[in-house]
Design goal:
β3, α3 and β4 form a beta-alpha-beta unit. 45% of the residues lie in helices and 18% in strands. The strands form 3 sheets. Strands 1, 2, 3, 4, 7, 8, 9 and 12 form an 8-stranded parallel β-sheet that branches. A two-stranded antiparallel sheet has the order 5-6. α1 packs across α2, α3 crosses α5 and α6 packs across α8. The protein is of the alpha/beta class.
Length: 300
Amino acid sequence: MSWAATSKEWLDKARMIEELGYSTLLMPDHFYQQLAPFPALASAAAVTSTLRVGTLVLDNDFRHPVVLAKEAATLDVLSGGRLELGLGAGWMAADYEKSGIPFEPARVRIDRFEEAISIVKGLFAEGPFSFEGKHYRVIGLDGLPKPVQKPRPPLLIGAGSKRMLGVAIREADIVNVSFSGRAGALNSEFMSSGTVEATTKKINEIRQAAGDRLSQIELSLPVFFCAITDDRKGEAERLARTANLEPSELLSLPHALIGSLDSVVEELQRRREEYGFSYVIFGRELYWQMAPVVARLTGT
């Protein structure tokens, strides 16, 4: 969920998502029609009591990490320690083209992103922090306020490429195994990076590279194509047209869940056993559609 036309609509949605049993309200970070993440999440936290709030994910190039750390720590304070901070290196070319922000090669964006992670973590820690890198410089800055959560809010990193997975394995508490943003747009190359084969390869890379740290990482899966229906074929045909895929291709994606309530719940449980996904994220306005799944899995 990322959009509402009025304050009332947004706050009503936040309350409803909490009532439906969801654990976390996450927002993306783009320049198309959506609310700005930090103020929207702060207001959502103010009208809920258990709902966690977070970002999926903030584009590192849109904010200096010193500014980002202060905004994030403030949100953690205002929410009473309910922030999940999702960060990424930036991938959607249209955001850069329309805003005039330089869309540099992926290696540069990821280099800068790695420096930003070090700065954000350093500013969340106690005492003054200094950093000297290729892209950023911080001199004796004590990041204030400090987050409520200790040692800091959980860090989620969205990763679809080999290098970003490596960064996430080293730095994240939650690794969001997603599509690769190398293409810079939602095209066939983007979609092909989310197949069963591609996802299995990513999971194997995580397991091999994480070593002892694997037990400290929660694996997350974003699901963008969802429907609870007895007409699985017909719904797949409809959704496939929106993604420029064949229905059979869509149905095979780990990022899709289409079928009866029982079959969807069984599929989520299978993916947890096979891949280790324990944190499933339903895209955009799908919270009503998937509410029966949440109720079944949480026993509410």
